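Suppose a colleague, Dr. K., hands you the sequence of a protein chain of 240 amino acids and asks what its three-dimensional shape might be. Before reaching for any lab equipment, you can write down a predicted structure in token form. Begin with the sequence itself:
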Amino acid sequence: MPDVQIPTARGTLPAYLSEPDGDRPRPGVVVVQDVFGLTPDIRRQADWLAAEGYLAVAPDLYSRGGLARCVPATLRTLMKGHGPAFDELHATRAWLAGRPDCTGRIGVIGFCMGGSFALQLAPTGGYAASSVNYGRLPRDAERLLAGACPVVGSFGARDRSLRTAPTVLAAALTANDVPHEVTVYPEAAHGFLNDHRPGELTRLGHALVRVTGGPHEPSATDARRRIVTFFDRYLIGEAA
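The predicted structure, expressed as tokens, is then:
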């Protein structure tokens, strides 16, 4: 699958594009990286979405500097709810929607840090569905999610850092009459959908994965099934 360059106000943004088979226009999905960056795992996330019929693009939010500089800057942007990373994600969505092989219906999916971005992008008006995977919630979730697109959330019961997040998220979405499906997997910890294989992260990165959790394939398999069903409903089916 090709690496592409997306035009933004700050110059071109590198991204990974995964295209489904066939030549008819398809809905698109913006894939938002976890804290480790545009890793092989995030490329594989785009690939499974493409295999399900979606035009998937994962922008490199760390392309303008190394991890030491970009991680704190991107997390600060996430905390503020606006800034360069959001601008680059908006540019990615617009680029994807404007492609002739895209129907213009766009979803967003994110993991960990990316899940938080996917949640904050849900009410911006550019997305038809959002998949939030163990993303941290803002304190004002109920206010933030007014007018959000449909949200599918996936969390692990063994994720000690996000014990209350599924309940709070479901309540905030219900309060705003946002269609949603939030599932907690009893055997899963944080990061259960991500599979950072040996040698694909720094030594510190692999250590963090060991501490916080890691892949749990039975839960991940079901979560992928639910996400695709949800995206099919809101990006392709009657709800679209």
